[in-house]
Amino acid sequence: MHLPPLDVAVFPIVTMSYGYNGNYNNNNGSSLPPISSISTAPSYYAVSSPSQLQYHNQISTPTPIYPPDAPEFSSVQELARRTLRDRRAALHQVERLSGQFHRLYLLNLHDGRRMVLKCLPASTIRLMRHEQHSLETESTVLEFITRNTGVPVPAPLIYDGSNHPGSSSSSRQHQRGESTSSPSALTRASGSSSTNPLNAPFLLRSFLPGTPLSSCAARLLPATRAHIDRTIGLHLSALSNLRARGFGPARRVFAGRGAATWREAFLSLLEAALRDAEDLLVSLPYGSVREWAQVAARAGVLDGVREACFVGLDFGCEPNVLVDEASGAVVGMLGAGNAVFGDPLMAAVWEGAPVDVWRGFGRQEAPVEGGVESVRMYSMYRAVVSVVAHYYRPRAEQAELEARRALTGALNQLASLQHIST
Q1: Better-predicted residue by pLDDT, 107 or 5
Q2: Residue 115 and residue 107 in contact, taking contact as beta carbons nearer than 8 Å
Q3: Per-residue pLDDT tens for 274-291?
Q4: Whole-angstrom Cα distance, residue 172 to residue 178?
Q5: In what order do the strands lie in the sheet with 211-212?
Q6: What is the pLDDT of residue 178?
Q7: Residue ranges per domain, the chain?
Q8: What architecture is domain 211-421?
Q9: What is the mean pLDDT of residues 407-413?
């Protein structure tokens, strides 16, 4: 019989929600991932309802379950000890965090320290092309942001890409402005599964306490909400000041394989999403999407972007912003696994963003409707991704209908632009 270490207290495993790092659906109604628990401990879990989407202290009555997809308790214990370099470190509790397709666990130690363990989704979950290396992207992006800005993001502790096809565990060169490179302080595995206690890719990062803005927005005073929105804008501005020499997905840019122009990079992103749709035979107006993308590109709609700015595509969306309700401070920004270098306006947060977010970003107001053609291109891209994501990870039918309406609206808006449609 397999028993946990004697110095480890075995407690029920529960789940909590942790914001949303998904595909542009800025609400709390995303489907929950498969529930799992630690197989060597008495196995329990609790699923938070959408109204309980808190980062902490929202735990309902546990229900027993014995799923096969969770890491061994002793393996997580060994990982914590290696990270802290303390052989006496002992886990007090492991909590399953819900709300996204990755398997996410909150590690509580006896001395009060906390860490977040992020693992690949269950093998039954199919990923879209831009999601396939999100763990590696997140580890590098978090390190990049931590070293170059004061934006509050989780600190990456260990990333191990062992057994992940195409992943890289070597250090990378990052740029800020002209060129800023620094040796990696992020602990990375050598790539050998023998040194990986979980025998699977994972990211271990610091814990940020706070409440998702999406869960507490209705309780905030107008002045507090305005302050939070301006702070979000300030953080987004700081991130957009991070520059690179190439355009496109952060993973490719960090590897020195970025595109020469934003037009090339964006069209490649859009084509990848369309091929994801074709893989599952999703019904979409492929011809119209590709045609308008090419027409707008030939008209120079994307050519005004000459600097490759860092863009966290999910940064700033309400479920990905952690706040301290008592002080109104923004204590965390989540969503680092989906990032590109290109036009800052491609981020999902700008669609319907409050004016105070724009002011914090450095603009007095949002772009005039119809004045920024590229924004309509980005709306089309987000709508395509949202529709396709529904077929990879089904959600409520209403979510797909809303995404399809958004896609139709974006195509109609592009068609209404006389200087690119004639």
Answers
A1: 107
A2: yes
A3: 999 999 999 999 999 999
A4: 16
A5: 211-212, 321-324, 329-333
A6: 35
A7: 14-206, 211-421
A8: Alpha-Beta Complex (3.90)
A9: 92
